[in-house]
Amino acid sequence: MLPVYICEDDARVRTELESYLKKQILIEGYDMKLTLSTRHPEEIIKTVKETPGRGIYFLDVELNGESMDGFALGQEIRRHDTRGFIIYVTAYKDLAFETFRYHLEALDYITKENPDKMFAGMSRCLHIITDRMREDSSEQRPYFTIKIMDVVKHIPIDEILFFETSSRSHRIVLHADQDRIDFIGSIQELETTLGNRFIRSHRAYLINAERISELDLKHRQVIMDNGERCLFSRNVKENLVKYIS
């Protein structure tokens, strides 16, 4: 169930948004729940940190009397929910371009000047989100989630080639099609977490079995399908040969 958040400084508008969203979720049978409605951005951030996952965020831009505006709040949300749906509902239509300047990847920018158009825009967003979630679930694509400082990243498992121990103590380097990520962890923990899809070829390597291209037996190396090479130990040679065969 997708949590829905509202951050709006005008109590009257906030009540209208709450009422409309609850009604739409009930009528349409959306797999969503209004989790938090507040004027305080810190409350949104605190809840998102405590309950990580993908959410829907209806945010005002100008939050009078608060410590940050809607764009700064959007940036904080993105640190913890990289795949969440951010929708701005604001009186300032001329600020729409700011969402691009802040690299927020907002789903929509809805103005409040006409309530009917505002609610129609919100309804459209809920439909789009439902369609996107349906597409994601139909793919059934598993992700590996990793937190680096204050940023949470989701990497599709099938895009990961291998993990290797870093030259720095207690750190791992993830090798994926589009990423090289250094993070705190251990090969042993990853081996337990990721299961049989990954093979411990060497004390320093955990490789995605589905991305193996061939074995270089002479140099005891696994060649991945992008050409990168990982070492393998003598005691796993037989298993690797069987797998390739």
A few lines on this structure:
The chain has 7 helices and 15 strands. It has 245 residues and is α/β, with parallel strands linked by helices.
Give the helices and strands, then pairings.
Elements: E1 2-7, H1 11-28, E2 32-38, H2 41-50, E3 56-59, H3 70-80, E4 85-90, H4 98-101, E5 108-111, H5 115-139, E6 143-148, E7 151-156, E8 160-165, E9 171-176, E10 180-184, H6 187-194, E11 198-202, E12 205-208, E13 212-216, E14 221-224, E15 229-231, H7 237-244
Parallel strand pairs: 1-2, 1-3, 3-4, 4-5
Antiparallel strand pairs: 6-7, 8-9, 8-12, 9-10, 11-12, 13-14, 14-15
What features would you describe in this structure?
The protein is 34% helix and 31% strand. The protein is an alpha/beta fold and 245 residues long. The protein folds into two domains: 2-139, Rossmann fold, CATH 3.40.50; 143-244, OB fold (Dihydrolipoamide Acetyltransferase, E2P). The strands form four sheets. Strands 2-1-3-4-5 form a five-stranded parallel sheet, with helices on both faces. Strands 10-9-8-12-11 form a five-stranded antiparallel sheet, with helices on one face. It has a three-stranded antiparallel sheet with strand order 13-14-15, with helices on one face. Strand 3, helix 3 (70-80) and strand 4 (85-90) form a beta-alpha-beta unit. The longest helix is centred in the middle third of the chain and has 25 residues, at 115-139. The chain is elongated and about 70 Å long. The chain starts with a strand and ends with a helix. The relative contact order is 0.09.
